[in-house]
Amino acid sequence: MTNSKNIVALATESAKTLAAAVTAADLVKTLEGAGPFTVFAPTDAAFAAIQKDVDSLLKPENKAKLTNILTYHVVSGKHMAAELKDGTELTTVQGEKLKVSVNGDKVMIGGANVTTADVDASNGVVHLIDKVLMPKM
Question: How many domains, in total, are found in the chain?
Fold first, then answer.
């Protein structure tokens, strides 16, 4: 069953730091759009692990860098965990690729563990991950 909440509304509930970053980067309207999108959403604990960087990234002068990082966590289309195959590369909205690793029931994206998979949204799906993915800058 599809959740009536969009990706941004779900992030506001389960990934508050991500939601704040999406707002700071002016990506709310994009991620509230029709999609579908797959978002690999770092948990609040993942952001806390790089808190000093997060504080800097949320400053207005770092908006472009923040946007680059956030769009690296978004893929066009709705990709459920069971559909992700080991070795697959997904092209992010940012333009770089994320490699999928699957070992049994454990799924990793770009080296981050998927801790909660398949959080259905009205405009896609969210997978919570345990670290913030950093694109090549």
Answer: 1
